[in-house]
From TrEMBL:
Domain ABC transporter: 9-220
Family: Belongs to the ABC transporter superfamily.
Keywords of the record: ATP-binding, Nucleotide-binding
SMART domains: AAA
InterPro entries per the UniProt record, alphabetical: AAA+_ATPase, ABC_transporter-like_ATP-bd, ABC_transporter-like_CS, ABC_transpr_LolD-like, P-loop_NTPase
Annotated GO MF terms: ATP binding; ATP hydrolysis activity; transmembrane transporter activity
Protein name: ATP-binding cassette domain-containing protein
SUPFAM superfamilies on file: P-loop containing nucleoside triphosphate hydrolases
Organism: Terrimesophilobacter mesophilus
Amino acid sequence: MVRGRQVVIELTDLTFAYSVADPIFAGLDHRFEPGTSTALVGRSGSGKSTLLYLIGLMLSPTSGNIAIDGIAADALADWQRAEMRARLMGFVFQDALLDPARSIIDNVLEGALYNDVAGGDTREEALALLSRFGVTVDSERRPGQLSGGQAQRVALCRALLGEPAIVLADEPTGNLDDMSADIVWDALLGYAAAGATVVIATHDRQRAALCTSIVEVGHADPA
Ligand code: ADP
Ligand code: MG
């Protein structure tokens, strides 16, 4: 169900600081396995999003390593990191972040356009995903009229299109009604069970407990 081979993410002695004096976390070791979902939990400001963006190769470690599929990401050029991200990863952010100037279907196809694989089959796949997640409005319309829950389900379709080996989600159900939150959460856990490596930053400990494993981010003792 997941495209290509399955991908391990390995963090080794990972330290990250926005300012030198005050690292967000230090010496973090963790291995994220295919077929698992991992919740990154911690209080607000503990560094959950930061860790997710490091894994997503959108930030670089202050020290330590991130290996994805056995490749040390810090050794890669920016374009190689972007290529790896496009090929292996899907993202879901808290506020869907759909492009208001593009149709719903083009929002779902966005990553595929980047990957240069937006042919007829990909369009069919996008429509099938929208249908599967109950987005029943005309997909040629702009997303402006969508409810938050519908918009996030569109964002979920965008993340799952092309069946990436890794899905990263940042507070994906933060602003959603329970029904949409259940749909999004179940989809992420189901996608992990199908062989993907799924990492979800969340402050929702009840939902986090449904993941295969939990990583506590940040200092154990709040300052
Ligand atoms: P969480 O997602 O757990 O709420 P974040 O990863 O967003 O935490 O933030 C961790 C800490 O880093 C917070 O103290 C936040 O204010 C700080 N921070 C986040 N982004 C930046 C940035 N671009 N520059 C400087 N500090 C930042
Ligand atoms: Mg956050």
